[in-house]
Amino acid sequence: MSRKPCVDQEFCLSCYLCVETVPEAFRMNDDILSEVFNPYGAPEERIQEAIDSCLVNCIHWEEVCCPR
């Protein structure tokens, strides 16, 4: 099993912190909510940093059976 980051947009504050931390993986969508556009675009350690710094804990890991 592998994992990828996911954003629960219902709770996103649009603070841009994840985008500033890992722009290779996160971006703001048309509704100005965070989204993962490239789940394997950065090392897991950097993505974990964005997860840990999220003010409302709306970013989490999701298990995937077939990575990439």
Can you describe this structure?
It contains two helices and four strands, in the order E-H-E-E-H-E. By secondary structure, the chain is of the alpha+beta class. It has a two-stranded antiparallel sheet with strand order 1-4. It has a two-stranded antiparallel sheet with strand order 2-3. A hairpin with a 5-residue loop joins strand 2 and strand 3. The longest helix has 10 residues. The protein is globular and about 30 Å long. It starts with a strand and ends with a strand. The model has no long low-confidence stretch (mean pLDDT 95).
- How far apart, in Å, are the first and last alpha carbons? 12 Å
CATH class category name: Alpha Beta
Domain count = 1
Order of helices and strands: EHEEHE
Q: Total strand count, please?
A: 4
- Identify the strand order in the major beta sheet: 1-4
How large is the count of helical segments?
Answer: 2
Q: What general outline do the C-alpha atoms trace?
A: globular
**Helix percentage:** 10-25%
Largest sheet: 2 strands, antiparallel
Structural class: alpha+beta
The CATH topology is given as Alpha-Beta Plaits
Radius of gyration from CA coordinates: 11 Å
Unreliable residue stretches: none
Strand content: 25-35%
For the record, the CATH architecture stands as 2-Layer Sandwich
Mean pLDDT: 95
